[in-house]
């Protein structure tokens, strides 16, 4: 049984503009291509953390670094573990490309250099054999940097029956930056991808004093964990087709037309098949505005169900036969989706045998 490329969230919300709007926003998910294609024969993978202190000297420097930066001892190690876990979780949650071994492996330790030399192919193949996988996604570099700045600002206090008054507050800004290095090893034990990634999150808190403002900030280890999770998700999307959220507008009414209104009632009830039936009737209207909007809605309906070629046909009809301006942009979006879907099917390899490329 074929499965459509799009996983539809059969929910609709009123678009910006509220009840007076002529459109409703519908939401769906689609597989977006990965930035880097992986070997087709690589179907089962495990994640691994190679950022581990190898010697007592390295452990000493890790603790010392945490003390001097204010991050706390061994927070980078915890962040690295979060980063490794987030890659595996993102691959399992957002992509059907790989079968992921749940447990993260702990591999050879590190020295003080940032990015280790690649692991020996024989060693990688042995790890893969023991883990019963075809490849490894390995975190091989991790570093965090925390910066704190403070300033004094004024806040206006408003009290009933009293004049406004200004009070000073201390504002503390914390910026947490994380830099990572990932490598992916293929079935032959060779590196098939390598990427250095950087991300940061900013936090702010205020209080009567500097210490009070500090207490309002998340703990450094929590900040590092949040940034690490984001980076792990980013790398997963780099190597595997992953689901992204899409939104589309459908027309809910046209002047002096009852059919679009009836179809919108069915949309609100999440009865898309019945809504499409009514839109097909509206597409036969002698009023070009009604027919154009109905064709546009049918294009959205077919996209939601993974039939991209049918979606393009209806969008073109709305754009060229009925001169619906929005439909011209939609045709371009759908054509880009068709190209992306072809890339996804190629990247999925044997994982695509269940029909993920439907609707081409």
From TrEMBL:
UniProt keyword annotation of Signal present: yes
InterPro entries hit by this protein: DUF6340
Signal peptide: 1-20
Matching Pfam families: DUF6340 (PF19867)
Keyword tags: Signal
Organism domain of life: Bacteria
Protein name (record): DUF6340 family protein
Species the sequence originates in: Hymenobacter yonginensis
